[in-house]
Amino acid sequence: MALMITDECINCDVCEPECPNHAISQGEEIYQIDPELCTQCVGHYDEPQCQQVCPVDCIPLDPAREESPDELMQKYLKISGKA
């Protein structure tokens, strides 16, 4: 699954620079995650880095974007140009 940022986001700016796929950007009111670029850090790290640094725990899995670990790896390979 891709991750999503909920409206509990306090715009602290710590998640954006941690994303290796540049999937996080400032939205109109809060940060947002592009589900086409989010691999939950598969291919880069063992755990999603944005979740690790978020001080308010507002980055859950997006239930509308179910993806298996294999699908996340394939997305990483495509994004990184290693496919």
UniProtKB/TrEMBL annotation:
Q: Name one GO molecular function term.
A: 4 iron, 4 sulfur cluster binding
Alphabetical keyword list? 4Fe-4S, Electron transport, Iron, Iron-sulfur, Metal-binding, Repeat, Transport
Q: Which InterPro entries match?
A: 4Fe4S_Fe-S-bd (IPR017896), 4Fe4S_Fe_S_CS (IPR017900), PSI_iron-sulfur_center (IPR050157), YfhL-like (IPR047927)
What GO terms fall under cellular component here? cytoplasm
**Superkingdom of the organism of origin:** Bacteria
Where the record annotates domain 4Fe-4S ferredoxin-type, the positions are 1-29, 31-64
The protein's name in its UniProt record:
4Fe-4S dicluster protein
Q: Which organism is it from?
A: Paludibacterium purpuratum
